[in-house]
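Reproducibility note. Readers wishing to regenerate the assembly model reported in the main text can use the exact inputs given here. Chain order matters: entities are listed in the order in which they were concatenated for prediction.
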Amino acid sequence: MSVDPMERYEAVIGLEVHTHLKTRSKLFSPAPVRYGDEPNHNVHPIDLGMPGVLPVLNEKVVGLAIRLGLATHSRVNQRSVFSRKNYFYPDLPKGYQISQYDEPIVSKGWIEIEVPTDSGQPAAGEKKRGETPKERRRIGITRAHLEEDAGKSIHDAAVAGADDTHIDLNRAGVPLLEIVSEPEMRSPEEASAYLRALRSILRYIDVSDADMEKGQFRCDANISLRRRGESRLGTRTEIKNLNSFASVEGAIKAEIVRQAEILDDGGEILQATMAYDPQRGRTRILRLKENADDYRYFDDPDLIPLIIQDEEIEAVRADMPELPDEKRVRFQDEYGLSAYDVGVLISSRPLAEFFEQTATACGSAKSAVNWITRDLMKELNERGVDVGELAITPEMLGALIRLVDEGRLTARSARDLFPELAEQGGDPEAIMRVRGLEAVSDPGVIDGSVEEVVGANAKAVESVRAGDDKALNFLMGQVMKATQGKADPTDVRRRLVERIRG
Amino acid sequence: MQRITRQDVERTADLARLSLTEAEIVALTRDLDRILEHADQLKDLDTESTVPTAHAIVLPTPQRADEPVPGMDVESALANAPLREGSAFVVPKVIEGEES
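Running the prediction on these inputs yields the following structure tokens for the assembly.
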């Protein structure tokens, strides 16, 4: 039997994402939402489940949920209801989580992902390198509902000791949107593409920072397998608490292998909740769902159903920032950029905005995109930072590009200057003057250097006459050296060729 | 027709972490059944054109501005804790991932 289970089975994957909403205070209490503080410093009696308290809805989250609904082509429900989800756990002081159940605030939408054309299909022999045709696919959004986060249990023995668990309720009550996808993904790569697309949207519309390291963007994955050609769904399992793209892909791969082995042996998949161990690259059963979770949901009597008026939805719509997919289309149309370049530029909203401002500042979208995808991205990747964290501004990069495009600074000098500008900022023209980096454009000076180099390298000159381009490159290098790299290489080449080949 | 069985009561009590005596189980089974019987009378009414009442008051949802206030005093927050360490509540070891 072949090693790749994807040849025999089709994976059916659905994802549930919990994303922290970008608010200053909690969902139902005025306690601050902050990360990294000492335990239990950001709590309110409401978060502690004290008797007699009344939750009051934070108005900001309503607007954020509407934004998500509009950005995912979903229906924003004019009536939604808060329900109590009852369970007992030490980091849930009330004994219930306020969530939404049968009437969520957002339902039935979709987002687009970009996947290799053969994604989810059995691998057809060796894949060709460098050529992966891509297609855009819609993944359905089943629903998105508002709920409060639980507190944090600290199990780490180094902090809590071997016999104890510490409870920190700073996170208790932080507003979340739980976004549930349709089971429409067919491979770990598609699941990852969906998460990236969703995270990008959340950041573009300023609904969530979706920082996985801070636990602001967490994922549960539902997976079942069925034989290729079968239309009935298999029994699914749910992997909980996947907190990085690598662990989402790793966990789904591992679970596909585990289920395939059981099915190959004629076994039966048991409905279960799973955990993923990234060190061992394996999933294991946490608990079987023989006793289906019984959370005894009921409408929260403390909260009146949430009614959203049309005007409110329209006000949010009028205020919506441009979405990644809209930007993609516009950048291609307006600036005539390649799909690859656009993909890099729209990967984050600050980068896309940096590009547009640079293009305006230097008057050339083409030059701006070259400098950003090459030099700026290199700095960002090497430093592992976002564009906002560098000192360079679009105005500075625009000024630098203008100096090059006007022939006042060679591309080489500009590139040498770039890392310093990225780190410390500054006025490129002033730096150029102080350092004496102005391009040599005086024909007399360049011709002087050409004459000198030609006189000193008779042998190479002979070779150039004989048509040897390598020798020409050598001579060019000599002239560039003599002019300290401040001459325009194209100009130098032209003058050398004229001088030698006449 | 019995609407609530003894098993329903035992399971619900278990989910709610309630420990009931034999007498309480018997009484609750009977009482809950009678409550449902009472509610069942609604079935005799024509509610075709009646909007379900989710809440007794018709009001817009009260909302507050997203303005944080400082968290409560840590000592008060922890005052009821049987065990604490630093400013954390301490509970017996929980097996990771058991719930949600």
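We highlight two features of this model. The first helix of chain B runs from residue 6 to 15. Chain B has a mean pLDDT of 87.
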